[in-house]
Amino acid sequence: MREAFARIRRRLKRRQLDAILVTQPENRRYLSGYTARDHAINESAGVLLIPSEGEPYLLTDSRFSLQAEQEAAGFRVKLYPRGLFPLLRLLLKRHRIKRLAFESHYFLHSTSQTLAKLADSLKVELEPLTGFIEELRLEKDAAELARIERAVLLNEAVFQEIYRTLRPGRTEKEVAQAIENTMRLKGAERPSFETIVASGPNAALPHAVPSDRPLATGETIVIDMGLVLDGYCSDMTRTVVLGTPDEKTVALFRLVRKAQLAGLNSLRAGISGMAVDKIARSVIERAGLGERFGHGLGHGVGLNVHEGPSLNYRNRKPLAAGMVVTVEPGVYIPDWGGIRLENMAVVEKEGCRVLNRDTTFLEL
Amino acid sequence: MREAFARIRRRLKRRQLDAILVTQPENRRYLSGYTARDHAINESAGVLLIPSEGEPYLLTDSRFSLQAEQEAAGFRVKLYPRGLFPLLRLLLKRHRIKRLAFESHYFLHSTSQTLAKLADSLKVELEPLTGFIEELRLEKDAAELARIERAVLLNEAVFQEIYRTLRPGRTEKEVAQAIENTMRLKGAERPSFETIVASGPNAALPHAVPSDRPLATGETIVIDMGLVLDGYCSDMTRTVVLGTPDEKTVALFRLVRKAQLAGLNSLRAGISGMAVDKIARSVIERAGLGERFGHGLGHGVGLNVHEGPSLNYRNRKPLAAGMVVTVEPGVYIPDWGGIRLENMAVVEKEGCRVLNRDTTFLEL
Question: From which domain of life does this come (chains A, B) (predicted)?
């Protein structure tokens, strides 16, 4: 992360900022190695204060002091027995910080009012920033890619174990719970999002919540699952059928897979997220089902399960090598069901490398 | 919740506010019955717009439309295909809202900037509020108390099942994981916070994270666990010893229990949170261990596992009947271990009702 620091400092100086307060938990972990998680945005496990010159600080409370000291190599750990602001006052004065950036997208309005009062009393100028650290996280290095790949493969191992147990009569909720238990038993930190198991008509909702509906033969069953391993996330969707899928189902599977392959085959450094989305989407549109694919094609994955870059109609920026994205086209037919197929891939200079190996129901 | 609405409207009118935007997820659920959870503060499952007159709205996106319609009785569900703000513009104009409150403590600074622009263009005045809805949630009604009690009893059933399996050699992490799995298997929605299992010297940290340390005989093992059932939380701590506790351990157990009982015996409508904290704390102080009890005595529990009222040196307000609090004194001795005992109780007009029945290691 030494390089990330050098880049942050250069970018702070370029904007004439003396320091940045880092509150977003994954940014905090990325820069410091400190793995504690916030109980909630208003129950923070700590804040980084990174000056444009001099050593960076990790500010936290006594509950986390040991963990902070052990994990945040290169950071001075300071405790705030009376809350963040008295300590911050001290450090802003000590380091003569006159222009302070903070993470506007992970800072409560109420806290920003307290910060504004402090800044006012010290004649410090505040600069709300969005995505400043996240930009550094877009391109993953080799160590990060290795972790992401392990998270992908563990997720597939869990899927395979559960897939073998699917039977008509088991409910969506039971299957989702078995998936999340198996993740933990196999060593995942936690699911990276709430597992989706959606069968029959429920599968027509892209973000269905697992219900007490029992699985039945012949219907599509969408399973969207991911886990966190060593801080990094995986995210995969498979759609399966118990028994023999009918012709309509097979035709739709092939269509969605064709769209997915079109997307994957177009992925490479330099192409925009918008263009990749369009290439995959046009496969579904040509089949007259464009209206049935109502979400973006994919999103970045890393320390957050949803991060940049987006593969959708809004992202005009070129992708870069080392970015990790999902490619997850779907078709959703009300009162019938849905099919979504999702793999993760690393963008490379010439093309991409798909991280998934599981082929269940992909080549129907 | 009809009564809560009437109270909100009265309070809005008193402050000459035309409407409030409710973003805090538990406030949203409390008022609307809508149970969807935010994936994160920046991935909201919906927002309430409650005018001081006329019907309230639930604003969400198409992923949640079905659930919103099913659950939020009395609310008009409106979808925002292009994000919250275009829809909000429409509604603010339609209802001629000129003074709009929002929840400053659950509103990102970055979102508040977008809201400020919208308000500016419509000449709407914004009023950031904190705790406006939370205040209504402090005093629980009979239906809420029944749910909380069920969450407490289920938590105890999980504890008992795990307690029987504790053996020297099992690690803290294994036990914590078994607890959380058992919660789900027994029907809990999820743990209400990350389970603490801290043994030996780790038990000297009030907020220890479960480690790979194996349990050993004779040491104190602090188990702090809670679950969510039907939206409501439980929170309980037991400290146990494998084998026979030595004299020091027994003496400290008795001291902490005495402090807990002193706190519980003082709980009643009209006493302040500060006074209850002081009464329990003085038991530990008189034993010369005041410095070893470094946190507040307790906190409110409801839809959030940490909510008002606080039992600590800052809360001068009188408690009221129907409030639910934890009473959790502890002593923490560096390099030795710690003991914390936590029960939940409902404040009543004359005294309190302890919700816990489990007595494991309480009457040593």
Answer: Bacteria
